Amino acid sequence: MTTIRDVARLAGVAPITVSRVINHSHYISDETRQRVQTAIDQLGYVPNSLSQSFRWKQTGMLALMVTDITNPFWTTVARGVEDTASDAGYSLILCNTDERPEEVTRYFQALLARQIDGILLVPANNDFLPLKLPLAHQTPCVVLDRSLPEKLTDEVRCNSEQGAFLVTKYLLELGHRKIALLNGPNGISTVQERTQGYLRALKEAGINPNPQYLLHGYFTMESGFSMASRVLAMEPRPTALFAANNFITYGAMKALQENHLNIPRDISLAGFDDLPSNFLVEPFLTVAVQPAYEMGCRATELLLSRLKQKSVGQPESIILPTSLLVRQSCAAPSILINQD
């Protein structure tokens, strides 16, 4: 491997001179600078960016910690983060935590050991304690998608409560009174907010919620299938299902198909977050839509701003709107008798 000493020997200068050229020192003549650059090009020398980063206390690296990168929602968020970071000259490290708090702590320790410049984090739960580790190292962090009870740092998220309210209200307007919510783990802020939106819509419609129609599982296809299967065995069976994320939605669709139920003729299905076209089959799904790419961009812009300011300041909270995308997966219940 070519070293800085090899470059210095070919250019006929001291190694410190090569270092000064690499670091753009103003104390080097144009003739010497050109001679060193020619030697660098001839030898194919690549400066050790990590050692330079220790000197300048910057690595040019950001980290994004998400819960499940196989989820198309997080893939879109990651693209927004990467595009914005790349435009600013930063590279991105992607970490997958699988909703496990111990993985969050492990990644924090590994990233801080590598002098990461900043971190974007999707918390595994509502525990704010892991965040104290990077903050103690004065490493800027931005929380994505979720909200922590103690506001230690900036957060960028979407209005989950409003999205769930819009979906549930739409189902109510179609005539549904028995609506089951298939949700994620209860210790996560977005899960709690989507429950609140669901309950608010029922309350405004004068409907007392049925506790058995409010299910908690995981943000996975398997959990969606399991929760939907439980719902279909209930008596009375709900006339509409509201799945609280796209993987739960897909699992619920599989359960309905295996039970030979037509959507929306036999039962309506609505979801939270859209599915890519290769996941979709007729009928297309009615969903609450979050601006995933924009959320990634805005969070990265906020993190870069903190790095540029070199000061923490008061934590900032950016909440982006959700919207309702109506397609063909929901219809009026086929039997309206005794819906109340």
| CATH architecture classification name of the largest domain | 3-Layer(aba) Sandwich
Total strands: the figure is 12
Instruction: List low-pLDDT spans.
Output: 52-56, 336-340
Whole-number tally of structural domains: 3
Q: What spatial form do the alpha-carbon principal axes imply? A: elongated
Mean pLDDT: 88
Major β-sheet strand ordering: 2-1-3-4-5-11
Q: Name the helix and strand elements from N-terminus to C-terminus, one letter apiece.
A: HHHHEHEHEHEEHEHEHEHEEHEE
Could you state the CATH homologous superfamily of the largest domain?
Response regulator
The biggest beta sheet reads: 6 strands, parallel
Judged by helices, strands and strand pairing, the structural class is alpha/beta
- How many individual helices? 12
Summarize the structure.
This protein has 340 residues and is an alpha/beta fold.
What's the topology here?
Blueprint: H1 4-11, H2 15-22, H3 30-43, H4 49-56, E1 61-66, H5 72-87, E2 91-96, H6 101-113, E3 118-121, H7 132-136, E4 141-144, E5 154-158, H8 160-173, E6 179-183, H9 189-204, E7 214-216, H10 221-232, E8 240-243, H11 246-258, E9 268-272, E10 286-289, H12 292-309, E11 317-320, E12 323-325
Parallel strand pairs: 1-2, 1-3, 3-4, 4-5, 5-11, 6-7, 6-8, 8-9, 9-10
Antiparallel strand pairs: 10-12
